[in-house]
Amino acid sequence: MKKLFLPISALMALSVSVSAQNARIFAITGDVKGNVNWNAVREIKSTDGTVKTTLYTPSAKPSISYQSLQNRNKTPNGEAPFSAIAATGYDAKSNRLYFTNMRGNTLNYVDLNESNLTVVNNEDATFNTGDKFKSEANIITRMCFGADGAGYALSNDAEHLIRFTTDSKPVVTSLGRISDGANNGDKSIHTAPTSWGGDMVGDAMGNLYVINMHSDVYKINTQRMVADYIGSIKGLPEGFTTNGAAVNEDGDLVVSSAIYTESYFKVDFSTLKVTSPVKSEGGVFNASDLASSNLLYQAKVSPIAVATSDKVSVYPNPTVGKNFQVKVANTVSGKYTLTVTDNKGRTILSNNTTNNQTLKVNLPKSTPAGIYILRVTNATNQAIHTQKIVVE
């Protein structure tokens, strides 16, 4: 089938477009702390995990408006829309929270632009991954939005990756089965039940990441439909099951547990190490799922003014094996300094070159994937070229 993906220039533009005001994180919880019915929807603060707003709880008995995407006057059939929510994804562009139920075969969303609680139901048959009552393998438990602006949903057994758009005429596409990477060893994204559950997030380069309930992390290339095992999150408390995952405004991973109420945890994704708890004095709601619009590797790039020049050429970009070449041409004779910095302004590499010279740049092997800034300055320290470099 034909798959649509944005060019890398569009992905880089997108990576700086989501500001802190869109860094919202939603959590699927029970009605009260410790409850595991997964029928409450809350927006939480990324700094301490406290509740910012409550969209829905059964005990509040709010009025709900139901609509069907296929027939706007029809009330969707089946179970209550907030019963046993299995997966969620937040789209900042439309300001909608998408979700699916544990046993449901439809894609739903809450329109957060409306003052009244409105649930819209999309009954597209392509979203159906099979009989959920006969096999938990068919349940969609991971959902997120990618760098291309589309939503992605993944079944427990990773046999079904589904892509959906959010425009006025949404398209739901079954992309098929995810294969294991050649170097995964004894780790498989299909293993039942250890690789089931968990959550999914996207990055600024168009990849998806599945974090399963045992904190194993798989990187999914949606063009090749391959999941590469990249490691396991280190530093989580004993007995912590990773059930929810989101990205905060700093580009860090935040994970939640369905059984742990002391805190959520912030994770440095480049090392897969826990850096700090996300909690307040009263603890947090145990959460089966988290949703955010932020992408990994996107944070803190926007303040940097980027001005390209036809006097400087950089290739390949994205890099291949963390190596690329820079050529300064058609300029006044002299020496030039090339500096590569990360999204926190730290210098990764600095080299000198002259005009009409091609310099081979070899980033350190330990350089994590992400977006970096290349600056070329002249002998008087005046910048003549600034450009984003994508390291895969």
Blueprint of the fold:
Layout: H1 8-15, E1 25-29, E2 40-44, E3 51-56, E4 64-68, E5 85-91, E6 96-101, E7 107-111, E8 117-122, E9 140-145, E10 151-155, E11 161-164, E12 172-176, E13 179-180, E14 199-202, E15 208-211, E16 216-221, E17 226-232, E18 244-247, E19 253-256, E20 264-268, E21 273-278, E22 289-292, E23 312-320, E24 323-328, E25 335-341, E26 347-354, E27 357-362, E28 370-377, E29 383-391
Parallel strand pairs: 4-8, 13-17
Antiparallel strand pairs: 1-2, 1-22, 2-3, 5-6, 6-7, 7-8, 9-10, 10-11, 11-12, 14-15, 15-16, 16-17, 18-19, 19-20, 20-21, 23-24, 24-27, 25-26, 25-28, 28-29
Task: Please give a quick description of this structure.
This protein is an all-beta fold and 392 residues long. The protein has one helix at residues 8-15; strands at residues 25-29, 40-44, 51-56, 64-68, 85-91, 96-101, 107-111, 117-122, 140-145, 151-155, 161-164, 172-176, 179-180, 199-202, 208-211, 216-221, 226-232, 244-247, 253-256, 264-268, 273-278, 289-292, 312-320, 323-328, 335-341, 347-354, 357-362, 370-377, 383-391.
